Amino acid sequence: MALTIGASAAPQTTGQGTVGGQVLGPDGRAIEGARVTLQASDGSHLETTETNAQGRFWFPMLPTGQYDVRAYSKGRLSEWHKNVWVEVGRQTTVTLRLQSKKRAPLKPPPSLAEPPPQDNK
To answer: CA-based, 20 to 30 A from 88: which of 17, 34, 66, 67?
Structure first.
């Protein structure tokens, strides 16, 4: 009888890499304290971190694969940077730019689909 220790019951690791980069404001300046969210492209792996004084962030020791990254600070969001590929032993660098705040209209415009109220007297 043979005893096998460490058989393939555990998932095989494919290696690890890092996603890092910088968050910039609409004016191109580095944003300190921005919240950066990283998730696997299939939505299964979620992590957050904050940027340092130079607007830099890192997500170390990630399993290889594709990830999506986004930043948020003071009511501003960046677009999702999708399908960021993480490779074994490498850092993938991403620059995230926060969008300008959009001003909400003071009063919503009337809907053209709604007929004007009628007086039924």
So the answer is: 34
- What amino acid is encoded at 28 in this protein? G
For 30-74, what is each residue's pLDDT tens digit? 999 999 999 999 988 899 999 999 999 999 999 999 999 999 999
45 by Cβ neighbours in 10 Å (0-12 / 13-18 / 19+) ranks as middle
Question: For 16-41, what is each residue's pLDDT tens digit?
Answer: 999 999 999 999 999 999 999 999 99
Nearest Cα to Cα of residue 85 among 101, 68, 99, 103: 68
Structural domains in the chain plus CATH codes: 16-97 (2.60.40.10)
Other Cβ atoms within 10 Å of 97 Cβ, number = 17
Binned at pLDDT 50, 70 and 90, residue 5 comes out as very low
Cβ atoms of 88 and 14 within 8 Å: the answer is yes
> Could you tell me the CA-to-CA distances from 106 to 75, 109, 110, 112 in Å, in that order?
18, 9, 12, 18
